[in-house]
Design a protein that fits this description.
Layout (H helix, E strand, L loop, with lengths): L7 H25 L3 H23 L8 H31 L5 H25 L4 H40 L19 E4 L6 E6 L15 H16 L3 E5 L7 H12 L5 E4 L12 H10 L17 E7 L2 E8 L5 E6 L2 E6 L4 H18 L5 E4 L6 H9 L41 H8 L2 E6 L8 E4 L2 E5 L15 E7 L5 E7 L4
Parallel strand pairs: 1-5, 2-3, 3-4, 6-9, 9-10, 10-12
Antiparallel strand pairs: 2-13, 5-6, 7-8, 11-12, 13-14
Helix pairs in contact: 1-2, 1-4, 3-4, 4-5, 7-8, 9-11
């Protein structure tokens, strides 16, 4: 067969693929930025280029294989290496950055890898049609593409993490205040919230909102459903205070900013604690998240003692000059490691022994100021291990042998009065116990412990004089059961007693 010269059609096919993928990446980034104009521009350009490629394939003269076969081969051979590279990238990034992989970056890397492989396939399909000059040009183009596409993909994660982390750390203020157990406790060490003596105080607890930057785009319903859930809960419960028991975000700047702004715009005092995902660093640091909380007009958040973590602070609910209840907000951290039987074990973190000392200092200090023990509620993200014991003692296994299959999610099936809700997943608490629950029992102040973390759990379980309460998963972020979307409503009376109920929200 006579070899054809290197034609403009051959060059168009080789060049159009990387150009198309670049346009697709730009369209994806515009989608992430919720830019309708950018999506329109890049979408139109991409469709136009795709039309050119199709016409090129259909009008080729004397091809070595049919156009449909060439395209099919490109796709088949391109997808497999791209998938392998995608998996390898996640593994390496997971080792180096504890899983901190922005989704759009992963998509861009996969697209670039697929572009490279597709170009190589297109090149091989065309080499026999080219004269020596054409082969030399194509090989040089292939080498250039490998340098421009693959090498930056490998280097970009380090640049991304260094750039974003450095940027947001530089925007963060210095660490929180200092504390020692010997210093005198005063009400100025707490945030004062006045309660109307004529009615009960209503607290709406949200948990595990957990949106990423990718969720903030016009084509995914996650952020709209999440915000609609929050708005419905506020309308249904009319709270005086909103608490958030952790995982407000996932370490992403834009989504955290959006959530903070949305919650704050209702004009209701609100108080968050940090969850394990709030401690992760993708495009913002915990210090930047704390800065957003402090700067929000209606947020009561305080950094608290720097040595204890981020966000250990107290809200004292007062009627005039009388303390009614202390809301003790605590950082349960992220993960920690310990040695067990000669092996290093990585587990969820928990409230530390030093934080337990601070807790005692708060409870004793309030009792000293008021002349009697002030009732308190503790808000943290990660549950204590005693949830397991309380559930086993309360659940009626004869009536419902499989708790995860219980259909009555609000009432459950319990033998113990005061228990309600369900556990549809295991209690993901640290297996080591640093003694915080025992400290709460001994102090005689705390009557309720509220947490989040486990999206499919919403049970409240009385145990040794303390109600252990899961908050409800607020919206569809990350994972969870739709029938469990909602919030925990806590009612505080003038005598310091609290009661709780579940408020579910169905948007479908």
């Amino acid at each position: 067969m006579k070899k054809s010269s290197f034609s403009m059609s051959s060059a168009t096919t080789v060049l159009s693929v990387p150009l198309g993928i670049v346009m697709a990446i730009m369209f994806w980034r515009a989608l992430l930025a919720s830019s309708l104009f950018g999506m329109a521009v890049w979408g139109i350009l991409f469709v136009g280029l795709l039309a050119v490629v199709i016409m090129d394939c259909l009008t080729l003269r004397r091809p070595q294989m049919p156009p449909t076969r060439r395209v099919a081969l490109s796709v088949i051979l391109g997808l497999l290496p791209a998938a392998l590279f995608f998996g390898l990238y996640h593994f390496v990034a997971g080792v180096l950055h504890a899983g901190s992989v922005p989704r759009f970056l992963s998509a861009a890397i996969s697209a670039c890898t697929y572009t490279f492989v597709w170009c190589m396939v297109a090149l091989v399909c065309r080499l026999k049609e080219m004269n020596p000059a054409g082969r030399l040009f194509s090989c040089g183009l292939a080498l250039l593409l490998s340098l421009l596409l693959v090498v930056p993909c490998i280097l970009r994660p380090a640049v991304f993490f260094a750039g974003y982390t450095e940027k947001n750390v530089s925007r963060a203020p210095a660490a929180g205040e200092t504390w020692s157990e010997g210093q005198a406790f005063t009400l100025s060490d707490t945030v004062i919230l006045q309660k109307d003596p004529k009615r009960d105080l209503v607290i709406l607890n949200l948990a595990d909102i957990q949106l990423t930057d990718m969720d903030l785009n016009p084509l995914t319903p996650l952020y709209r459903e999440t915000f609609a859930t929050i708005e419905a809960l506020i309308r249904l419960t009319q709270p005086d205070l909103i608490t958030i028991t952790g995982d407000t975000g996932c370490g992403y700047a834009r989504s955290t900013e959006a959530i903070v702004a949305f919650v704050d715009h209702f004009g209701i005092p609100w108080a968050p604690v940090f969850g394990n995902h709030d401690h992760e660093v993708y495009s913002c640091t915990p210090e930047y998240t704390a800065k957003l909380y402090r700067e929000a007009e209606n947020c009561l958040f305080r950094d608290g003692p720097a040595e204890l973590g981020i966000g250990n602070y107290v809200i004292t609910v007062m009627e005039g000059e009388t303390p009614v209840q202390a809301l003790i907000m605590m950082d349960s951290h992220d993960h920690f490691t310990y040695e067990e039987n000669g092996k290093t074990v990585r587990d969820y973190a928990q409230i530390t022994e030093r934080q337990t000392e601070w807790y005692r200092w708060v409870v004793d200090g309030l009792a000293s100021l008021s002349g009697s023990v002030v009732p308190s509620t503790v808000f943290a993200h990660i549950p204590v291990i005693q949830f397991e014991e309380a559930f086993e003692a309360a659940w009626d296994y004869d009536a419902c042998p499989k708790p995860s299959h219980c259909e009555d999610v609000e009432t459950g099936c319990y033998l113990v009065e005061g228990a309600f809700g369900v556990l549809k997943e295991d209690v993901n608490a640290p297996k080591q116990d640093f003694g915080f629950f025992d400290a709460m029992v001994q102090a005689g102040s705390t009557t309720r412990f509220v947490c989040g973390h486990d999206h499919s759990n919403c049970a409240t379980l009385p145990w040794q004089g303390i109600d252990l309460s899961y908050g409800m998963h607020t919206g569809p972020g990350c994972y969870g059961a739709p029938e469990l979307y909602g919030g925990l409503v806590i009612t505080l009376s003038s005598d310091g007693r609290t009661s709780a109920r579940l408020q579910t929200v169905s948007l479908r």
